[in-house]
Amino acid sequence: MVDVAAIFKAYDVRGVVPDQLDESVARATGTAFVEVLDVLANGGAVVVGYDMRPSSPALAQAFAEGVAATGADVILIGLASTDQLYFASGRLGLPGAMFTASHNPAQYNGIKLCRAGAAPVGAESGLRDIADLVAKALAEDAPARPITGSITKQNLLPAYADHLNDLVDLSKCRPLQVAVDAGNGMGGHTVPAVFAGLPIEIVPMYFELDGSFPNHEANPLDPKNLVDLQAKVVEVGADLGLAFDGDADRCFVIDELGAPISPSAVTGLVAVRELAKHPGSAVIHNLITSKAVPELIAEHGGRPIRARVGHSNIKQLMAETDAVFGGEHSAHYYFRDFWRADTGMLAALHVLAALGEQDQPASELFREFERYVASGEINSTVADQAAAVAEIERLYGGREGVTVDHLDGLTIDGGDWWFNVRASNTEPLLRLNVEAADVAMMVALRDEVLAVIRRPA
């Protein structure tokens, strides 16, 4: 019996194939998806895409059959990045399902679900109800229902590429050489289509679609997976490096010296560009992006709005505030012009346009967006997370000039430094992020807080 509760997470479905996630689970999920979203009364169809993992086509087909067994129709867009699926959901006005495990290892697969217009489906917005129906269907082991809806195929990759290029004008961009590491993921599928016709010379790395990830994990958030790209940028003298994760919805940037650009700096740059087009707009940033981000937003006439970590929180706030853009520390970038969904590819086009419209190298271009020194996220195994957080608040919260808030975990702000401690939802971990005005201050604060977190019980 499949442990449904173990694979239905807060924002998506994720599990090992076939032990936790197989075609029977995918088929039951398709049927439950139609019932929970009342698809037959709202458009009557679902759009489905999948990544390059060996198990993805069969899982997507089983899901499609589960949808079609309810009488709803299915539009299969085939191989796709996650943001390409969001595009299809937005353009067609239909709910969607993307089969991917993003940056997880090869033995995993998963499903990202959305409502029409790429609106998120999470635990509190339908996913838990879908899980309940899936668990019931698997327990009853009922025979497969006959397929009464249609399953058709449609190639939306050219339309996706055209839409992105309509949103960012690269007509004034000088010729650039850009090394791109697709990590054997879906960037190898989407980058050639999106960059076709642009004044960009691509130096491709690992564009072959291969869900076994023979070169490195498709997770650019881990520094070791950027090493090959950093070396290639320096080797060929590229103007920039771009790295995409497995489902190509996140993009990381490397400057011409081979140094990583923080996602906070990318958030700041894109925010400034969007505010130039939409003066006075709100821009969302999660609470562990750099303090430079709200400063830049305010300096350019925007309204910075701080959010909890997580795409459902960002998307909800964007809808409530009509924000033009949102950015997270994890390199997820959200655009009002893209149905408030996240697309690393659109962020990459903004970076290329900003670089190509002036003569400075990337390292100089981003200097004004990198104002502080950050630790990056540091995870520690802690048995009693609540007690550790309470001790940290006791030690730091009463200091003069310090502010404390609990928007997402515990944030302590000392003016020229801040740190946030958040408990993992699924593991006995505490996540620490520290930022300060200089390296010495950041290191001292980081080590001081870590000593409290890791103090023996």
TrEMBL record:
Residues 377-450 form the Alpha-D-phosphohexomutase C-terminal domain. SUPFAM superfamilies: Phosphoglucomutase, C-terminal domain, Phosphoglucomutase, first 3 domains. Keywords: Isomerase, Magnesium, Metal-binding, Phosphoprotein. Its cofactor is Mg(2+). CDD domains: PMM_PGM (cd03089). Residues 7-134, 159-258, 269-372 form the Alpha-D-phosphohexomutase alpha/beta/alpha domain. The keyword Isomerase applies. Belongs to the phosphohexose mutase family. This is Phosphomannomutase/phosphoglucomutase. The lineage of its organism: Bacteria, Bacillati, Actinomycetota, Actinomycetes, Propionibacteriales.
